[in-house]
Specification:
The protein has about 110 residues and is α+β, with helices and mostly antiparallel strands. The protein has one domain. The chain contains 4 helices and 3 strands. It has a 3-stranded antiparallel sheet. The radius of gyration is 17 Å and the shape is globular.
Length: about 110
């Protein structure tokens, strides 16, 4: 676990502005109260400019309301499997594999 965290922290993180451009290194935003979105460079490069802009605008909008932690959009979500490789459907939980199953609460 500690090794995976170290790899994650050592990735090349970049700052994304609300126009969808890579604006520099993560942590270099001038607005410290409401900073820009940061993503690993590999993830940022895999997204289109409009997808990068969308996740950055979401962060700015929620941050202006005082929210500190804002989730990425679905396309920009950074996911890793336990072995560090890509996530398969089986790793996401039974909802992805057995989508027709409904959870029911039992009352005793």
């Amino acid at each position: 676990m500690a090794g995976e965290l170290k790899k994650w922290l050592n990735e090349d993180w970049v700052r994304i502005d609300s126009s969808g451009n890579v604006a520099g290194e993560c942590g270099t935003s001038k607005n410290k109260k409401n900073p820009d979105r940061c993503l690993p460079r590999a993830k940022a490069n895999s997204l289109s400019k409009s997808q990068r802009a969308s996740t950055a605008r979401k962060k700015k909008k929620e941050g202006s309301k005082g929210k500190q932690f804002v989730a990425n959009t679905k396309a920009a979500k950074v996911m890793r499997a336990a072995n560090g490789g890509p996530v398969s459907k089986l790793n996401k939980g039974c909802g992805a594999v057995l989508s027709n199953r409904r959870k029911r609460t039992q009352y005793t």
